[in-house]
Design goal:
By secondary structure, this protein is α+β, with helices and mostly antiparallel strands. The protein has helices at about 5-20, 35-55, 85, 155-175, 185-190, 205-215, 245-250; strands at about 25-30, 35, 60, 75-80, 95-100, 105-110, 115-120, 125-130, 130-135, 145-150, 175-180, 195-200, 220-225, 235-240. The N and C termini lie far apart (about 55 Å). Bound molecules: D-MYO-inositol-1-phosphate and calcium ion (2 copies). D-MYO-inositol-1-phosphate (IPD) binds next to strand 4.
Length: about 250
């Protein structure tokens, strides 16, 4: 059977669901950074199936091929974004895959199989959740916004104090701040208009490659911490509805 791009992502969702209701084997990659047998199983499936569709593409995938490649055609795979949530049975996790040509995303899909939420975007054709077009929020000011963030383990160890100061400032200047544990879904929820903004330092290309296109195709804005063009390896991502972008950047840069 020949699967298409979206079928492959949805099928990988079955792998995630299969492991959700039992104890899965996990190993530590770092002090508080785990990888489960399901991350590996999902990644192996995605790599094999996607290469059948995207002939000649290079793969950058979190668990087994995580070196950046200098190639014009690349598929970025996060086989399970939100592993910690998954391991603890908190159902906010997803598969995140993006196809890039010459450094720009052309296709993206993020899928939370627990809630059956499939986010897709194609360059120039909009972003969709289960077939319904997505549009970012129209809130104009940070003071009426809800912001989401995340903390990669390395960054929290090195810069925890500064992160808390930023959390305080944003909490005081907005409706509040959330940390839910899947960068790919955080970005999709900005695209949906649930959150007005998302920021995180230390993310890897596979965390953001798909969500970036989904946000911009929903009318949002993406930049790095300096307000400059965000590349998949920029390390700091700021994603908003566009309207609160400068205000959020100015707090992040205080
Ligand atoms: C993690 C999640 C989390 C973010 C971490 C990421 P993983 O991805 O996206 O929200 O804060 O920094 O590493 O490890 O679950 O694929
Ligand atoms: Ca991830
Ligand atoms: Ca992952």
């Amino acid at each position: 059977m020949n699967l298409n791009f979206v079928d492959v992502i949805v099928k990988a969702g079955e792998i995630l669901l299969e492991g959700l209701h039992r104890d899965v084997k996990a190993n530590y990659k770092g002090k508080s950074d785990i990888v489960t047998e399901i991350d590996l199983k999902s990644e192996a499936f995605l790599k094999e199936e996607l290469l059948k569709i995207f002939n000649g593409y290079k793969i950058v995938a979190e668990e087994t091929e995580n070196k950046l490649v200098d190639a014009s055609r690349v598929i970025y795979i996060d086989p399970l974004d939100g592993t910690t949530n998954y391991y603890h049975k908190f159902p906010f996790f997803a598969i995140s895959v993006a196809v890039y040509n010459d450094g720009s995303p052309i296709e993206a899909a993020v899928y939370n199989p627990y809630y059956k939420e499939l986010f897709v975007a194609s360059k120039g054709e909009g972003a969709f959740l289960n077939g319904k077009r997505l549009c970012v929020s129209n809130k104009k000011a940070l003071e009426e916004s809800l912001i989401v963030t995340g903390f990669t383990s390395g960054v929290i160890q090195k810069e925890g104090k500064h992160l808390v100061e930023i959390l305080k400032k944003i909490s005081e200047s907005s409706h509040g701040i959330r940390r839910i544990g899947s960068a790919a879904l955080d970005l999709c929820y900005v695209a949906m208009g649930v959150f007005e903004g998302f920021y995180e330092k230390g993310l890897k290309p596979w965390d953001v490659a798909a969500g970036k296109l989904i946000v911009t195709e929903a009318g949002g804005k993406i930049s790095d911490i300096d307000g400059e063009k965000h590349e998949v390896d920029s390390g700091f991502i700021v994603a908003t509805n566009g309207l609160i972008h400068e205000e959020l950047l100015s707090i992040l840069n205080e």
